[in-house]
Design a protein that fits this description.
With 519 residues, the chain is α/β, with parallel strands linked by helices. It contains 25 helices and 12 strands. It has 3 domains: 169 residues, Alpha Horseshoe (Serine Threonine Protein Phosphatase 5, Tetratricopeptide repeat); 71 residues, no CATH class; 163 residues, Glycogen Phosphorylase B (Rossmann fold), CATH 3.40.50.2000. A hairpin with a 2-residue loop joins strand 11 and strand 12. The model has no long low-confidence stretch (mean pLDDT 93).
Length: 519
């Protein structure tokens, strides 16, 4: 009969060869005959984690701890299993138990730091990851993860230093090279960011995410030509919607249309459609027929705004067959060769319906308290779509935004334009429930004197209507607003207010209050 050690060695040998089922057999045999042997519990928990079964891994670690609670590897595995199960506080306790057993436990510090990073608890993750870096100064992943959390804390220079160390250790470290470029971008060192992304592309020429990120930096610099070229890589990103594939119609490549029918379809958010639909006017000058598919929320407004004889607007979801070519809307600037140096001033290109403007003139007057009816009207939007990947940096908590209302309520009447929002403030009239589509929203905005908004579709709508709009932006805003700009060629009625310090809105609030004092 084989001993426990011999069985364990067989299990370990098969595990290393990839014969996992045979390894499981040997480990299980040990437990049956020698249940006090802790080593097979550890290997079984490792295999369960590798197979994506954290619940089973947790069960094996708990059985091991019942035998001996002093093995640091078991507590590490238990913490990893709990983290996979999103039982984060219990996981942290297990990491700390592992550290209590062995203070120089690099694995526990590193994995706890990564877990806290996933939880977006960046300040708490930093000491754990720094300790991991002290314990193993030659671990490139540790410095890469340290850079990630420092970036999230807006400490871009320190993040770049961490990435530099990771790249020093592993010169072809693609992730660290790309992450460093992102931090350089947010540090407003754009030429260096471009160079860093180009370096990443020498390591992975077909990496769609790097190409897409490079597009943002190029367009933030004002290079729309090369930027929109790189932007086409969006369709190859794994988390991006798929490019439509029609069985008999191909993508338009910019060649003369010669009387053909082109379907232009929306692809991203409402604000993107509002911004880019302006180019339909240029496209319609060609010898062609256009079918333009837009979101349902925009359909009535755009139907009232576009009266071109060769343009037919349709609702999203409409089945199409009567067209020859198709194109996603945000590829239009590339094919039309749009450049900032050739931008002509855009006149307002969206028009509310006249009857709805009159209707809302009466409604706004009726819902405004009599003492406030002679005050200027300001629409406010402090938060965007919560599902948007950048919502955390572009939306503002009401408590932070509120001083704009509190300081200026004696001189202005404020209206909330947060769609579907149930908002209660004595100094703000809530219109959220009334905003059933953008035709209604446009009619309301037409009756306001000013809109103050974060970077949302309402900001785009106000600009496209030619309404004065002040847009509050993160320190490194979306590419279309560039960096540290106060005006934008996209909308002549728009003013930009960017954070002076990353994540700090108070300076923007102060600047807006100073501007309102001059109104």
């Amino acid at each position: 009969m084989l001993t426990a050690q011999q069985l364990f060695n067989l299990g370990l040998s098969n595990e290393r060869k990839g014969a996992i089922d045979r390894a499981l057999h040997f480990y299980s045999s040990i437990i049956v005959s020698w249940p006090q042997e802790i080593a097979p519990y550890h290997r079984l928990s490792v295999i369960a984690l590798q197979r994506g079964d954290p619940a089973l891994a947790l069960a094996w670690t708990d059985k091991a701890i019942a035998v001996n609670d002093g093995l640091v590897e078991i507590w590490n595995n238990r913490a990893l299993a709990l983290a996979e199960l999103k039982r984060y506080e219990e996981a942290r306790e297990s990491f700390e138990k592992a550290i209590a057993i062995r203070a120089d436990n690099w694995e526990a510090y590193y994995n706890m730091g990564r877990m806290l990073l996933v939880q977006k608890r960046f300040s708490e993750a930093e000491p754990a990851m720094r300790r991991a870096a002290e314990l193993d100064p030659y671990s490139a992943p540790t410095f890469n993860n340290l850079g990630l959390l420092l970036h999230e804390l807006y400490r871009y220079e320190e993040a770049c230093a961490a990435y530099d160390r990771a790249i020093e250790l592993v010169p072809d470290y693609l992730e660290a090279t790309s992450n460093r470029a992102a931090s350089l971008y947010c540090w407003h060192r754009l030429p260096e960011a471009v160079a860093a992304y180009q370096r990443a592309l020498t390591l992975a020429p077909e990496n769609a995410g790097v190409h897409f990120s490079l597009a943002s930096v190029l367009m933030s610099q004002g290079d729309l030509a090369q930027g929109f070229q790189e932007y086409e890589w969006r369709w190859k990103m794994g988390d991006w919607p798929k490019l439509r594939n029609y069985p008999t119609q191909r993508l338009w490549n910019g060649e003369p249309l010669n009387g053909q029918t082109l379907l232009v379809w929306h692809e991203q958010g409402l604000g993107d459609t509002i911004q880019f639909i302006r180019f339909i006017h240029d496209l319609a000058k060609q010898n062609c027929e256009l079918i333009v598919e837009v979101q349902r929320e925009l359909y009535r407004l755009l139907l009232a705004s576009f009266s071109l004889p060769n343009v037919r607007l349709v609702n999203s979801g409409t089945r199409h067959s009567d067209f020859d070519l198709h194109l996603p809307m945000m590829s239009l600037p590339r094919l039309l060769e749009i450049r900032y140096d050739s931008f002509r001033p855009f006149k307002p290109y969206l028009r509310p319906r006249g009857n709805e403007i009159d209707e809302w003139r009466r409604k706004l007057k009726a819902m405004t308290p009599a003492p406030n009816r002679k005050k200027k009207r300001i629409g406010i939007v402090w938060a965007g779509n919560r599902e948007h990947p950048s919502d955390a940096i572009r939306s503002i908590p009401w408590e932070t935004f509120a001083p704009i209302v509190n300081v200026n309520k004696k001189r202005f009447q404020f209206f909330s334009l947060q769609p579907g929002n149930h908002f209660e403030d004595a100094d703000v009239i809530d219109l959220g429930d009334a905003l059933r589509d953008f035709a209604v929203t446009a009619a309301i905005i037409a009756n306001l004197d000013l809109v103050i908004s974060v970077d949302t579709s309402i900001a785009h709508l106000s600009g496209a209507l030619g309404k004065r709009v002040w847009v509050m932006l993160f320190h490194t805003p979306d590419w279309r607003w560039k960096i540290d700009e106060e005006r934008t060629p996209w909308y002549s009625s728009m003013s930009l207010f960017s954070q002076k310090r990353p994540g700090v809105w108070e300076d923007v609030i102060t600047e807006i209050n100073e501007m309102l004092a001059l109104e």
